[in-house]
Sequence to fold (505 residues):
Amino acid sequence: MTKQAQGRLTGREPVSVVDIGSNSVRLVVYEGLVRAPTVLFNEKVLCGLGKGIADTGRLNAKAVDGALAALKRFRALSAQAGAKTMYVLATAAAREAANGSAFIAEAERLLGVKVKVLTGPEEAYYSAMGIISSVFRPDGIAGDLGGGSLELVDVRDRTIGAGITLPLGGLRLSDMAGGSLSKAQKLAKQHIDKADLLTAGKGRAFYAVGGTWRNLAKLYMAAIHYPLHVMHEFEIPVADAVPFLKRVAKGEASLIEGIETVSRNRQSLLSFGAVVLLEVIQKMQPRSIVMSALGVREGFLYSLLPVEEQLEDPLISAAEELATLRSRSPVHAHELAEWTGQVMRTMGVEETDNERRYREAACLLADIGWRAHPDYRGAQSLNIIAHGAFVGIDHPGRVYMALSNFYRHEGMIDDALSDEIRALAPVRLFERAKLLGSLLRVVYLYSAAMPGVIPRLKIVPDGIGGYLFVVPLDLADLAGERTENRLEQFARLAGRPMRTVVATL
Fold:
C-alpha cells in the first residue's frame, strides 16, 4: 500500500480545471481548492478551435477532432492525478460558433461533467478575479487576450468594473485581417478606440493576461537578458515596451534575440498580440505593463472560496505551506515573523504594507534550505524563493525575500551574487534584506531552529541612543563569542550600538 508523499500537504483534495479556449485546450490539476493553489499537473494542446471562425462561423472540423481527443485524455489524466472534482470552462469560440453547441454536447459526454460556457462579461469577470487573487491591491485595467476575443475590465483592489469583450483574439484578428499586419492594426484601432473604459486607466497598470502576451514578455525578457525568468508580475515600463512591440508588430519577431525561447506554434500570433497591445497603450496610456500568469481558471477557482479565505494573503499562505513542507519547525518560522516585526518597530524601522509582507514571508521561508549541503544553503534558498510559484509579490519583493535568506546563510558577502539579481531590488529593499538576514543570523544561534526561545529574547532601547539584546537568565548559556560577533554585525548594519545583557525576566 502506497502512502502520499510527504512533500504533499495533508488534507488536500485535488481539483482539476479544463479550459476550452479558441486557440488551446488545457488541463490544470491543482493540489486543492485553497487560497494559493499549487499546480500538480498541467498540459495544453494547441488545437486552434477558433481558426477560420471569422470567415465560416464554425469551429474548424480538424481542430474539433483534436480537441475532443485531448478532452478524452484529460479526463483520464484528471482521474489519475486524484482529482475528485472537475470544472470545465469554454470561452469565445465555443459560444459563438454555429456548431459550438454540438461540440459542447460531445465534450460533456466525453468528460462526464457539465461544461460552463462563459459569456464575454463572465470571461472579463473571472479574469479580473484572477488578478485580484494574485496581485496585492491591484489598481488598473485587466486585459485577457485569447485566441478569439479580448476581455477588458477595470480592477481596483477588490472592486471590479463592468467588463467588455472585443473580437480581437489573436486567431480571429489574423483571420479578419487575412494575415495582413497593417489591416490588423486598423481593425484593432477601430475596436480599441471605442473601448472608453481604457481611458480610466491612464497612469495606472495594465495587467496583461493570456498566452500570446506572456510569450511576448518571454521574448522581451530574452532580448534584454533579464535575469529572473518568472512571468508573474514581471513589469515593463511603457517607454521600454513600445519600441519592442513596434518591432514585433512589423513582423520582425524572428529577428529579435531570444526568439527560440518562444515555441513555433506561438510565434505566428506574436505580431497580432503586439498590434493589439500597442493600441491598448495608445488609448489607455498606462504607466506600465504588468504580466499575470493567472487568469480565468484561477479566477474561477478563487470565486468558489468563502470570502474569509479570499481575504487571506496568498503570499503568506504559500510561504506557510512551504514552511510546513520544508522547514525544521513551522512554529519557529512563525515566531521569527512575529519577533522580527517587534524588533523593527522597536528600532524605528518603518515598513510599508508590502515590506511587512515580504519580511514575514522571508521569515517563514528562512529554514527551507536546511537539508542542503551547508556550502549551498544560501544559493539554494535564493533560487527556490526567487523562482518559486508565489503570487501577491512583484519581482523586487521576490529578490528582497531571496536575498534575506541568502545573507542569513552566507553572511554579508556579496561575491556569490550576480549584479543582475542585485539590481532588481531598489537600494532600500537591498539594505533591508541585509538587515533582516543579519538579524536572522543572530537569533538562529540561540534557537537552533527550534521553537520556544525566540519569543523570550528582547531588543530594547538602552536609554543612551543604543539598544540592549536581552537574554533571560535561564538561557544565558546560549550566549557566547559567536553570538556577540553576529550581534555586532547586525548593530553596524542598523547604525546603532548594541550589547548583550543577561537579565531575569
About this structure: The chain has 20 helices and 15 strands.
